[in-house]
Amino acid sequence: MTEREKLRDKIYWAMTFLYSALGTCDRLLTASSAEKNKHLVGLGHNGSLPEQPHCDDDGHFMINGHCERTLHGEQNLIHNTDQNKLQGSKVRVLGTPCLRCLKETAAASVNAIEYTGSYNNQEFQPTSEMLKEIFGENFKLEHRDIDWVELFQELFDRLSGPGGMFNRLDYRVKLVKEPLEKK
């Protein structure tokens, strides 16, 4: 991967991460994105059906330990993206994709999914044999470890250099990891 491709990958992960802030289920604010031919072609965050209440407003709709009020980020990605652009794209997912979303994404002719983080909301733990059995030889599911502070710091440092917005504003942003206080 060239340096430019690495930069694009980091930016698309950062955009997916930021888009997850629109999620409406506080069990996991998540999002998905699709990239094809070096272009971001679609985004989706978890959220309720149009005109229906959100978990954040009316609470969770739990069935068998899972909230069923929202569509997952991958489902909204599929609904929000032109199907011709989605075909053959690479999809990024925050959290572990569920089996239903993997199948729907594969049915949209996506053959490569990268995900980061985890979300154990199911009994499904994909193995390479299971993926091959369900999706065939060409389907790829890959876990990525991402240090979000490192990723955003690198992007902010770039924007602090020549031509960058922070450089023009005459300041630099520095990110710091601090543990959350448990309630």
Descriptive account of the structure:
The chain has 183 residues and is α/β, with parallel strands linked by helices. It is 37% helix and 20% strand. It has helices at 3-19, 55-58, 73-80, 83-86, 99-107, 128-135, 148-160, 165-169, and strands at residues 31-36, 39-45, 47-48, 62-63, 66-67, 70-71, 90-94, 112-116, 140-144. The strands form three sheets. It has a five-stranded mixed beta sheet with strand order 2-1-7-8-9. It has a two-stranded antiparallel ribbon with strand order 3-6.
What key phrases describe this protein's structure?
183 residues; alpha/beta; five-stranded mixed sheet; two-stranded antiparallel ribbon; 9 strands; 37% helix; globular
What is the topology?
Elements: H1 3-19, E1 31-36, E2 39-45, E3 47-48, H2 55-58, E4 62-63, E5 66-67, E6 70-71, H3 73-80, H4 83-86, E7 90-94, H5 99-107, E8 112-116, H6 128-135, E9 140-144, H7 148-160, H8 165-169
Parallel strand pairs: 7-8, 8-9
Antiparallel strand pairs: 1-2, 1-7, 3-6, 4-5
Helix pairs in contact: 1-7
Describe, in short, the structure shown.
The chain is 37% helix and 20% strand. With 183 residues, the chain is an alpha/beta fold.
For the termini, the CA-CA separation is 43 Å
Please mark out the parts with pLDDT under 50 across 5 or more consecutive residues, or reply none: none
Biggest sheet layout:
5 strands, mixed
- Beta-strand level of the residues, as a percent range? 15-25%
Q: Major sheet: order of its strands?
A: 2-1-7-8-9
Mean pLDDT: 92
Rg over CA atoms, rounded to whole Å, is: 18 Å
> Helix proportion of residues, in percent?
25-40%
